[in-house]
Structure formats: C-alpha cells, structure tokens
From TrEMBL:
DNA-binding region listed in the record: 42-61
PROSITE patterns tied to this protein: HTH_TETR_1, HTH_TETR_2
Lineage: Bacteria, Bacillati, Cyanobacteriota, Cyanophyceae, Chroococcidiopsidales
Keyword entries, A-Z: DNA-binding
Domain of life: Bacteria
SUPFAM superfamilies on file: Homeodomain-like
Protein name: Transcriptional regulator
Organism expressing this protein natively: Aliterella atlantica CENA595
Length: 207
C-alpha cells in the first residue's frame, strides 16, 4: 500500500545558498543512515550533523520521510544517469546486443555508493515510487516498443517487469553480497544469458 505520509519537499531551493543548505542536509542524511542506521536518522540528528537549525531543515523538508525520499530520488537518479549514458547509442541495436550492455550498465550503477544503496534497500521502509525509479521501466518500454517486429507487444508490461526485476535483484545481490563475482564479469554473463534464453521464445530471429 502506498505511504500516506507526505514525502514531497516543502520547497525547492532556488538560490545558491539554499542549494548548499539542501545539499548539506542530504549529505548528513546519507552519512547518518550509513553510520548509525535508519532508526537513528531523526530530523534533529540530521540537522545537528548538517550544522543547521531544525527550523532551517523544516523550511525544505516537513519530515524524515520527505528527506529519505529526496535522498533516494537523488541516488536513483545518479544510477539512471550512469545507465542511460551507457545506452545512448544503442536505441536501434538488436536486443542480443542491448541486453548484455543493460546488465553491464546496471552493475556499474550499483557500484555508486553501494553502502548507501544497501541501507536504502534493506533498512528504509518503502515509500511512494519516485519519477527517477520509473525511468528504468520507461527506458525498457521505449526500447522494446521499437522491437515490435520481433516481440509480442501484448505481453510488454510483463516482459519489462521480469527483465527489470531480474537485473535489479541479481546485480544488487552481487554488488552487496558477492562482489568477487563481478571481477571476471561472470555474473554479468550469467544474467545476460538467462534473460536472453527467457526472451528466445518471444523473439523472431534476426534477418
């Protein structure tokens, strides 16, 4: 069930000084989450760590949940920028080429602040999905829609869900639990082969 707690920031920073304040708040939030855990990340503790008054924090964020949502959105946005940058020139490439690159890009994205990613994934209660978290779904939907001559679009939502969740679950587990599997790209190859095998029955052969 979606959270009923407001998770939007109270106001967005416009001036440079305000942007610096918000950045300090988000950095302090991340540090406390990593060092002390979610339960210790109170707004008072975050304000103290950021070197500002609690009143200044509340000018931008009405509660702890809105702070966590902003931090999650920034983290996911950074990950998606990494993924999108690696797939920029592959819009028209066949899925046999794109899928391994997508897996490789996701592994690179999960290497961005892996400890913070682990905390956000494992300790923080699930809040409403952010726009950044929908970017991967949209990226896959847009790409696969262009493959309409090779794939059955009536199952597109299900196919996108399976691909996205498989990559996310396995890359997250490898980066956090078994990083040695990343050294020789073994896990990357295994995930790619598994998904390509899954798609074989749904794809028309290349001309």
């Amino acid at each position: 069930m979606p959270s009923t707690v407001p998770t939007n920031p109270r106001k967005l920073p416009q001036q440079d000084r305000s942007k610096v304040t918000v950045e300090a708040i988000l950095i302090a939030t991340a540090r406390i989450l990593i060092e002390e855990g979610y339960d210790k990340a109170s707004t008072n503790r975050i304000a103290e760590r950021a070197g500002i008054s609690i009143g200044s924090l509340y000018q931008y964020f009405p509660n702890k949940e809105s702070l966590i949502a902003a931090l999650r959105d920034r983290h996911v946005s950074s990950m998606m920028e990494t993924i999108e940058s690696k797939l920029t020139d592959l819009d028209n490439a066949p899925i046999e080429v794109v899928l391994p690159e997508l897996v490789r890009a996701n592994i690179a994205a999960h290497a961005i602040e892996p400890v913070l990613h682990k905390v956000l994934h494992e300790q923080v209660p699930r809040l409403n999905e952010t726009e950044s978290e929908n970017r991967m779904t949209k990226l896959l939907q847009n790409y696969l829609a262009k493959q309409c001559d090779r794939i059955q679009l009536k199952n597109l939502d299900c196919i996108v869900f399976v691909i996205e969740r498989t990559i996310e679950a396995l890359t997250h587990a490898a980066v956090i639990e078994r990083p040695k599997l990343l050294q020789d790209r073994q896990i990357e190859q295994e995930i790619s082969q598994m998904l390509l095998h899954y798609l074989e029955q749904k794809l028309a052969p290349l001309p």
